Amino acid sequence: MHTHRRPPSPLHGADGAPLRVLVIDDEPDLTEVLSGALAGEGWEVRSAADGTTALALARTFRPHAVVLDWMLPDIDGLQVLRQLRQELKTVCVLFLTARDAVEDRIAGITAGGDDYVTKPFSLEEVLARLRGLLRRAGMAYEPDGDQLVVGDLVMDEEAREVVRGGALIDLSRTEFELLRFLMRNPRRVLSKAQILDRVWSYDFGGRSHVVELYISYLRKKIDAGRTPMIHTVRGVGYVLKPESS
Amino acid sequence: MHTHRRPPSPLHGADGAPLRVLVIDDEPDLTEVLSGALAGEGWEVRSAADGTTALALARTFRPHAVVLDWMLPDIDGLQVLRQLRQELKTVCVLFLTARDAVEDRIAGITAGGDDYVTKPFSLEEVLARLRGLLRRAGMAYEPDGDQLVVGDLVMDEEAREVVRGGALIDLSRTEFELLRFLMRNPRRVLSKAQILDRVWSYDFGGRSHVVELYISYLRKKIDAGRTPMIHTVRGVGYVLKPESS
DNA sequence: GCAACCTCTGAAGAACCTCTGAGCGACGGC
DNA sequence: GCCGTCGCTCAGAGGTTCTTCAGAGGTTGC
């Protein structure tokens, strides 16, 4: 039956080579977490803590995508962007910015096809945006378009629409991200810690039972009156799986 | 004497060399037990009782994986992690933490691809997590993916699913761990003491007949109405073996 | 500034799991 | 065949984990 689970990500470009991403951020912890998560998704990752290093590295590494903190110790993010653009013809750039920072200015920049995420962000958000960028740039090998399917549950990431058995389901932002994470890891038990780390912002300190709460919300919307797809694995976590098995 | 049972694990990395693991913990007893179990699984093991020693050792030993106690006498676990990360590009880290320490956030850790286990833990849990980490990092030589098969009994560790003869069997956490241990040692008689040491937490003092109880539970779920696979060896222990033999 | 909505906390109850005790049955030695 | 030991299983106490309600506080959009 289902052998091949969660492909150790055959993430690669049109040319077949693995996709490369450069993470530029001066906070070591954040860089660490981002790099780890990206590597886990199959990216080939390099990182730099400042603009100068980053530009030098980009020259040889030639990344397909860049995750760029707007605030760097040496160079302004905009400068870095221009340089990158000049030296690499096709590169997708995802900005990381503080929430209250000049959103309008960034909005103008992203018109070029780039995108941005405001801090504090969740890993799921960053990963999803990056996938979106790549898809739009036509650089990603996408096995199944932008549709996520598990049983009769279908998610359209771009449209942010979720349908089960033909019925459109309305989800809040967090509910959507949680479900997306579950749908990206079907038939795999995910611990609450894993979920918290991926779906909630990295600065979410409060020990609480948010995950359980949101699972409860999701169940009410997804499983209501149907064969349940979200299952609790006591003492371990939760799994999303299609009915059969 | 020992025929080639339970291949002293052809555990080795993609490069063919045996996998190395570094155990960092200041409790000698625990280190001892962990090291022993890991060695028994085919790992090449080294250990250190504090962060400084560990980091020095890591430099020459270059472990593929690290089992790291969060509370060390000298350096904070997080510091050790950072250093390790910096010096070894690819290393899987498994944390050991006190139960209530989880609350003050080991965030981002699982996101980075690492994992943690709370004390008190069972050896099976540590070993299983470590295998999981390696698998996800693509470092392990995995003969058979994450499926454990004995006769018509199949266990999917990631999904935490157990199937016998096509029927899905629901197991509690302890039942699952016990069965996993049995399935990892098929056709081999395991003493109750061995089982207790591997499946139950190391601080489980109460000499009792839990093992018998749980074997009884398992039988009811696994063997119910079928040819028994779990056999008692009076005065010695239990064996799991496929029907034939 | 208001209304609608969302996110999180606290708390209570439900569901579930683990282990203890005890009785009974099975086995093997003699 | 009898007896002692070892193993099996029932039943239930006690603890843990999960679920859900209700509501405070914040954010968003109008």
From TrEMBL, chains A, B:
Which UniProt keywords are listed?
DNA-binding, Phosphoprotein
Q: Kindly give the CDD domains that the UniProt entry links to this protein.
A: trans_reg_C
Asked whether the UniProt record includes DNA-binding among its keywords, one would answer yes
Q: Where is the Response regulatory domain?
A: 20-134
Positions modified as 4-aspartylphosphate? D69
Q: Does the keyword Cell membrane apply?
A: no
> Where is each OmpR/PhoB-type domain found?
145-242
DNA-binding region location: 145-242
InterPro entries (alphabetical) = CheY-like_superfamily, OmpR/PhoB-type_DNA-bd, Sig_transdc_resp-reg_receiver, WalR-like, WH-like_DNA-bd_sf
Quote the PROSITE patterns the UniProt record gives.
Answer: OMPR_PHOB (PS51755), RESPONSE_REGULATORY (PS50110)
Instruction: Cite the PANTHER family for this sequence.
Output: REGULATOR OF RPOS, TRANSCRIPTIONAL REGULATORY PROTEIN TCRX-RELATED
Protein name listed in UniProt: Response regulator transcription factor
Which species is listed as the source?
Answer: Streptomyces lunalinharesii
Q: What is the lineage of its organism?
A: Bacteria, Bacillati, Actinomycetota, Actinomycetes, Kitasatosporales
